[in-house]
Amino acid sequence: MIILDRFEGDMAVLETDEGMLEIERSELPDTAAEGDVLVNDDGKWRADREASDERRSRMRDKMRRLLKKNDD
User: Fold this and answer.
1) C-alpha to C-alpha distance for 54 and 57, rounded to whole angstroms
2) When you count CB atoms within 10 A of the terminal residue's CB, does the N or C end of the chain come out lower?
3) pLDDT in tens, 18-53
């Protein structure tokens, strides 16, 4: 899985299974956002909206559980 970790100026930092990867921000679609799951199809990057939404939902659930656990 490849995740758009952050933007640093004109660069995009991607988190991959092999480690971090930097690419030109211009290689990504204008709609790409931090936290998106990315797919590279024949050299062209796209955001996988369904996988991104599912990942964000799991992350929100984890945060809620952690915050609730700390409140107990």
Assistant:
1) 5
2) C
3) 999 999 999 999 999 999 999 999 999 999 999 999
